[in-house]
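Retry 2 of 3 after timeout on previous attempt. Resubmitting structure tokens to design endpoint.
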């Protein structure tokens, strides 16, 4: 069992303005070893920007970041390079290389960044594809894969780098509804295996079932933070609960047969 009291990633006071507008306002959070925290909230609340600031794809205007208790100094190229290798990122739209087969998409960073031989990198890529259930698709190009399979390749690619933390930015939002489950299943298995993860999502039933904590983000600030049981308890009166209830109302209209009181279909509470 991972030591869940050990902070792996900590951010403090992250702020960011873009186009003259404040997008993130002093956001702080800690991810402990082996925990899955889920970022939810209305569209435009700053979830993607926060994940990109944490991964330093966007440089925050203010704030500090620690990985395994070591502060990351953005101005030091070596720090930045090493940090990016240890913090994996999964994007909504997969970001695969179209001209590379699945196995090569997974292996490429091992060869180019880590300097592994083609044989070593391919062996590792095959092991990671196996882990996400795609060993039989290793020779296919992205255009020959479904959206769910492409996202699983991108997860395998991130895992191949042995990240300490995975950041997932709405990994199922670009998928047809019938493909969402296979990607969530992979993430569920990673959580069960002790991977430390921060995931922005609108998949509320998944968040409720699996997240250690829900972080509710609105207007660039984390306005609520707590276990799903606490934030979504009947009568909790939280902003998280009213947000979920609204999603549920929409889903009820779209799926009138959904049994009340049970965890709803994907995307609902
Ligand atoms: N490069 C940019 N320049 C100006 N504004 C930006 C830029 N990138 C994002 N924004 C604005 O920042 C706000 C937060 O966007 P962000 O994508 O982080 O929200 P989100 O919570 O992830 O939304 P969604 O759930 O729709 O993905 C939005 O108002 C968006 O228009």
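Retry 2 succeeded. Sequence:
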């Amino acid at each position: 069992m991972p030591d869940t009291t050990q902070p792996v990633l900590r951010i403090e006071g992250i702020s960011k303005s873009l186009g003259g507008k404040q997008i993130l306002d002093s956001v702080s959070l800690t991810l402990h070893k082996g925990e899955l925290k889920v970022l939810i909230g209305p569209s435009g609340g700053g979830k993607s920007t926060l994940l990109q600031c944490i991964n330093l794809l966007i440089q925050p205007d203010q704030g500090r970041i620690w990985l395994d208790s070591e502060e990351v100094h953005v101005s030091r190229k070596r720090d930045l390079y090493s940090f990016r290798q240890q913090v994996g990122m999964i994007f909504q739209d997969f970001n695969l290389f179209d001209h590379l087969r699945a196995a090569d998409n997974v292996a490429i960073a091992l060869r180019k960044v880590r300097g592994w031989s083609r044989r070593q990198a391919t062996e590792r890529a095959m092991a990671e594809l196996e882990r996400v259930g795609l060993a039989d698709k290793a020779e296919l190009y992205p255009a020959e894969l479904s959206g769910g399979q492409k996202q699983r390749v991108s997860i395998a690619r991130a895992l191949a780098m042995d990240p300490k933390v995975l950041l997932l930015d709405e990994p199922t939002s670009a998928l047809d509804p019938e493909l969402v489950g296979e990607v969530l299943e992979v993430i569920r298995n990673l959580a069960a295996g002790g991977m430390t993860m921060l995931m922005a999502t609108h998949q509320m039933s998944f968040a409720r079932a699996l997240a250690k904590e829900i972080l509710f983000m609105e207007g660039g600030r984390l306005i609520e933070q707590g276990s799903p049981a606490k934030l979504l308890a009947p009568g909790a009166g939280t902003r998280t609960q009213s947000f979920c209830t609204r999603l549920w109302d929409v889903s009820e209209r779209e799926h009138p047969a959904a049994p009340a009181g049970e965890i709803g279909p994907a995307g609902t509470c």
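Attempt log closed. The domain at 39-254 is CATH 3.40.50.300 (Rossmann fold).
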